[in-house]
Design brief:
alpha+beta; 8-stranded mixed sheet; 18% helix
């Protein structure tokens, strides 16, 4: 069993699980359907094609920066310019300045092929909406890890920013993990908060049908080094 980590960092992200018509929500962490959709785009899987092999993978997320929830002012017309078409104001939420590690656990050959596709995707990749582009590489240089999902997420380097000034403290608060119930060790389950997310594709993405899964959320203290890509992007004074 192997685990592939995906680095999900960008100015704006959205991961809805309950969106209907003009109301577009976002969860506070990436959804399984959203991440699998990103993977399908990388692999060049058509929306009408089955994604059973991707759905079979275990899934979990580590929240390194939760970001803030924002709301778009967004309008839409069914037939732009038609005299009988009214303009609707839609409600669309997003996460600003968030950073996550998403982990997929399963067949090593599939995960190796997936990481190569994330590095050279068939279609452009985005973080929940076409306009929301990643600011750091989604793929990892080392590819799949020979670790279970829990250990891979616990050992991943930190995506938190280093202090902007020498006198500022480093963020040492616990990390939040949002994972499939089966991927959490039994010794940790009593400390977790259970919930159900309806974000497991039940067939091709074109069918827009989803079933629910059991999710556990818990916070754990971790002492992990900074991710090299975050250190590389440290802000510099200009002037």
């Amino acid at each position: 069993m192997a685990t592939l980590l995906l680095r999900l960092v960008g100015p704006m992200q959205t991961w809805g699980t309950q969106s209907k018509f003009d109301d577009r929500d976002t969860e506070r962490a990436p959804s399984r359907s959203g991440v699998l959709g990103l993977c399908a785009a990388a692999l060049g899987i058509d929306r009408a094609a089955p994604v059973d092999d991707l759905v079979a993978l275990g899934f979990g997320v580590r929240v390194d920066r939760p970001g803030g929830v924002g709301r778009d002012y967004h309008t839409a017309q069914l037939v732009p310019g038609h005299p009988k078409t009214k303009t609707d104001v839609t409600t669309r939420f997003y996460l600003a300045d968030a950073a996550f590690w998403a982990g997929l656990e399963g067949d090593p050959d599939l995960l190796t092929r997936l990481n190569a596709a994330l590095k050279n995707p068939h279609w452009p990749l985005s973080l929940g909406r076409r306009a929301f582009q990643a600011s750091l590489p989604i793929f990892t240089e080392h590819g799949p890890l020979d670790l279970p999902l829990w250990e891979a997420l616990s050992e991943a380097p930190s995506l938190r920013r280093p202090p902007a000034q020498p006198w500022e403290d480093t963020d040492t608060s616990p990390y939040t993990l949002v994972m499939d119930r089966e991927a959490v060790p039994e010794s940790q389950r009593a400390k977790a908060s259970p919930s159900r997310w309806q974000d497991v594709p039940a067939g091709p993405f074109a069918g827009r049908r989803y079933v629910s899964r059991d999710v556990l959320t818990l916070t754990v203290p971790l002492d992990v080094p900074p991710d090299p890509w975050v250190s590389r992007a440290a802000p510099q004074e200009v002037g």
